[in-house]
Amino acid sequence: MKPVSLLFAFAMCAAPALALSHDIRGMVKAPTSVEINKRQCETTSCMGFGWKSGIHCGDGNFGCISGNAYQVGDKMDNVCDYGPRTSCRTCGKLDCSSS
Asked: What is the pLDDT of residues 54-63, one digit of tens each?
C-alpha cells in the first residue's frame, strides 16, 4: 500500500470519529460540586425536636449526636444523619463565620 493511500484511509476513518466526539461533548453533563460532595444521609434515632425543615447541627439532645449534621424533611417526621461536620464540632453551627 502506498503511503498516500494509507494516509487517506486513516483520514477517512478518523474524520467521523472526530466529528462524533465533537458532537457529543456538548451533550455530556459535567457533575457540579454539589453532586461531587453529596453524602449519604443515614437513618437515625435523632428526633430533631423543635427543628424546622432543613439542616441542623446535633446538640446532644433527643438522640442527636453533638457535632453531627442532621437534615429534617419537609413533613418534619423524618430526620437523617450526615455524620460529623467540622463547623458543628467547632462552634455548634453550620457556619462558624457568623458567630
From this structure: 999 999 999 9
